[in-house]
C-alpha cells in the first residue's frame, strides 16, 4: 500500500487499523504485564473522550495519522504504578509527562510497523490533555477509527484519524 492510495481512501484501511491495534497491544502489554484485549466500542464510547489523553501523530509530507489515547482516571493510576512503580496524582504534570511518553512509545512502534505497508513516516512530539467531553476536530472530517482495549490496568480507548498533511 502506498501513500497515493491512502490519500484517495475514504476510510482507514483495515491493514493500517490492524497494525495500529497490534502496536497498542504490544505497547500496553509491556507496561501492564498482560496482553490487552481488543473490544467492540459501544455507542456511548463513540462520543467525546474523558480522562487524560495522549496525543501524537505519525506523519510524512503527504499523510498524517493522528493518535489519541484516552485513559480514564482509575486506569491512569494503575498505568503509573505499573510503569514507574508510583501512583502519580492525576492532576500532576508528572501524569501528563507519563501519558505523553506512553503516546511517544506507541507512535514509535506504529511508525516502525506501518513501514510494512509502504508508509514511511516519523512521529511528532507528544502532548497530553486532561479533561472531559474532549473531541478531536479536524478539517474536512477525515476518516477515523475508534478502538477499545481492556487490560489489568483498566480500560482505555484509542481514536485514530487519517488526514492529508498540511
Question: Poorly predicted ranges (pLDDT <50, ≥5 residues)?
Answer: none
- Tally of helical segments: 4
Sheet with the most strands? 7 strands, antiparallel
Number of strands: 7
Q: How helical, in percent, are the residues?
A: 25-40%
- N- to C-terminal distance: 21 Å
Structural summary, described in words:
The mean pLDDT is 90. The protein contains 4 helices and 7 strands. Strands 1, 2, 3, 4, 5, 6 and 7 form a 7-stranded antiparallel beta sheet that branches. It has 166 residues and is an alpha+beta fold. The radius of gyration is 15 Å and the shape is globular. Helices cover 35% and strands 31% of the residues. The chain has helices spanning 3-7, 14-32, 73-84, 93-114, and strands at 37-39, 49-59, 63-71, 122-123, 127-134, 144-151, 154-164. Helix 2 crosses helix 4.
Amino acid at each position: 500500500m502506498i501513500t497515493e492510495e491512502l490519500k484517495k481512501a475514504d476510510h482507514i484501511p483495515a491493514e493500517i487499523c490492524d497494525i495500529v491495534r497490534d502496536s497498542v497491544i504490544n505497547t500496553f502489554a509491556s507496561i501492564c504485564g498482560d496482553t490487552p484485549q481488543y473490544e467492540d466500542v459501544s455507542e456511548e464510547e463513540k462520543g467525546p473522550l474523558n480522562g487524560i489523553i495522549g496525543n501524537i501523530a505519525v506523519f510524512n509530507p503527504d499523510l498524517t495519522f493522528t493518535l489519541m489515547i484516552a485513559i480514564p482516571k482509575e486506569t491512569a493510576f494503575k498505568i503509573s504504578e505499573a510503569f514507574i512503580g508510583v501512583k502519580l496524582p492525576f492532576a500532576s504534570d508528572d501524569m501528563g509527562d507519563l501519558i505523553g511518553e506512553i503516546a511517544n512509545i506507541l507512535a514509535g512502534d506504529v511508525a516502525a510497523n506501518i513501514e510494512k505497508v509502504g508508509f514511511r513516516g516519523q512521529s511528532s512530539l507528544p502532548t497530553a490533555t486532561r479533561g472531559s467531553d474532549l473531541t478531536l476536530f479536524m478539517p474536512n472530517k477525515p476518516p477515523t477509527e475508534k478502538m477499545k482495549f481492556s487490560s489489568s490496568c483498566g480500560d482505555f480507548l484509542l481514536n485514530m484519524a487519517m488526514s492529508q498533511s498540511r
